[in-house]
Design brief:
By secondary structure, this protein is an alpha/beta fold. The chain has helices at 10-23, 39-48, 65-75, 90-96, 109-125, 129-136, 164-174, 182-189, 195-216, 239-248, 258-266, 282-305, 309-322, 328-339, 343-361, 367-382, and strands at residues 2-6, 31-36, 53-57, 80-85, 101-104, 139-141, 147-149, 155-156, 180-181, 220-225, 228-233, 237-238. Among the domains are: 2-127, Rossmann fold; 136-233, Orthogonal Bundle (Arc Repressor Mutant, subunit A). Helices cover 55% and strands 13% of the residues. Strands 2-1-3-4-5 form a five-stranded parallel β-sheet, with helices on both faces. It is flat and about 75 Å long.
């Protein structure tokens, strides 16, 4: 059983760390693996190496213990939470957050021993369970293409017999837990078929999907009610949702957190259902691309500040490739090359931006980027 402790006060952190070490023995089966003053650092560490339990101070300036507990439980629902507080009034709310226990400061060794026994006892109750739960948490993936990852993280592909069944499945995933009328599905997938043939095609595709769900072991169900279908979501992770949650819980971009942000960017393996080219999926693709862009920009800027120019250039090129109609990638790359006195690349990129905007979108670069470029050109020509 691996545990972490989080408290923004260094003295309190050291006291609890020392107290835990004094209580942990060969029969306790509890290992202290980290002590953090920064809640964001604790959250990042939990993403990479999930602890089984966390001792959290409640009153912290940037992120309260309750908020941190919710973020940790989102990452690892089976994690046990123990709150540490100087105020007994927090006890009721502590259990609303699904805490295992709470400790009042100053923590007494005998009371801590009771808590550790509870931690170990609940660990034994869940023994053997994590692998089963992990199987239940098989990840369904829509980034790049429709597939899934088994309990070991291995990618698995569905073996479809028709082209419409995966599109229907993707559409129901997009509208998960919402009823979609049978007529809407027919209009989307079989608009030119007569109603009888289209209905038969729909029933055949639904049957295929149900069989595929059963074969893959995904905790999903297709329910039919009031002339409509609904994909009922069970204990299955969706990669898009998991990725968005990682953005929401991410610490500020800084040199010391850069590795975390690069790992998060690495999870974005492609646009929403990119390989399938479904027209109805384009708005969602655009929404998620913009989320990626807003996350990637400060990461690239941090890399530039650290002198990691090749890595930043690669990220800026990805921005241009994914969102060629936005100037962010071009502008970031041009300004980086301008600082490096790579004049040829600055000119090439501005010309590329102008050609793409004019040829593909019948527009010109914005006044801001044009003014920056002309000012830069003037500075180069005058040697300023």
């Amino acid at each position: 059983m691996k545990v972490i402790i989080v408290d923004d006060e260094k003295l309190a952190l050291l006291k609890l760390e020392k107290l835990l070490h004094s209580q942990i023995g060969p029969d306790c089966h509890v290992e202290l693996i980290g002590a953090y003053q920064d809640p964001y650092a604790a959250l990042a560490a939990a993403r990479e190496a999930p602890p089984d339990a966390a001792f959290l101070d409640i009153e912290m300036p940037e992120v309260s213990g309750f908020e941190l507990a919710e973020k940790l439980l989102e990452l690892h629902p089976q994690m046990q939470i123990v709150f540490v507080t100087a105020y007994q009034d927090f006890a009721i709310k502590a259990f609303e957050v699904n805490a295992l226990d709470y400790l009042l400061k100053p923590v007494h060794p005998s009371r801590l021993n009771v808590t550790l026994n509870r931690v170990v006892r609940f660990s034994h109750m869940n023994a053997g369970g994590p692998k089963h739960d992990q199987a239940a948490k098989t990840m369904l993936c829509c980034l790049q293409s429709l597939h899934y990852r088994d309990e070991y993280g291995h990618p698995k592909h569905f073996q479809w017999k028709t082209l419409k069944a995966p599109e229907l499945f993707s559409y129901l995933i997009y509208y998960r837990d919402k009823m979609v009328s049978k007529q809407a599905l027919i209009d989307l997938l079989w608009p030119e078929q007569d109603i009888k043939k289209a209905t038969t095609q729909l029933h055949t595709a639904i049957y295929q999907i149900r069989q595929m769900i059963k074969t893959s072991g995904l905790d999903l169900q297709i329910k039919y009610h009031d002339e409509g279908y609904r994909l009922v979501w069970g204990e299955v992770e969706l990669d898009v949702e998991a990725w968005e949650r990682s953005l929401q819980g991410a610490p500020p971009v800084a040199p010391e957190t850069l590795h975390h942000h690069l790992a998060t960017l690495g999870l974005y393996t492609g646009d929403f259902l990119e390989e399938h080219r479904y027209i109805w999926a384009e708005p969602e693709q655009e929404r998620i691309r913009l989320l990626w862009l807003n996350y990637a920009k400060p990461v690239a800027e941090c890399q530039v500040r650290l002198g990691q120019y090749a890595e930043a250039a690669k990220l800026y090129q990805q921005m241009i490739g994914r969102l060629p109609f936005l100037e962010d990638g071009y502008a970031g790359l041009m300004k980086m090359y301008a600082d490096l006195h790579n004049y040829a690349e600055v000119r090439r990129l501005y010309q590329q931006l102008s050609d793409v905007f004019e040829g593909e979108y019948a527009m010109t670069p914005s006044a801001d980027i044009t003014a920056w470029y002309l000012e830069w050109e003037q500075g180069v020509s005058t040697g300023a």
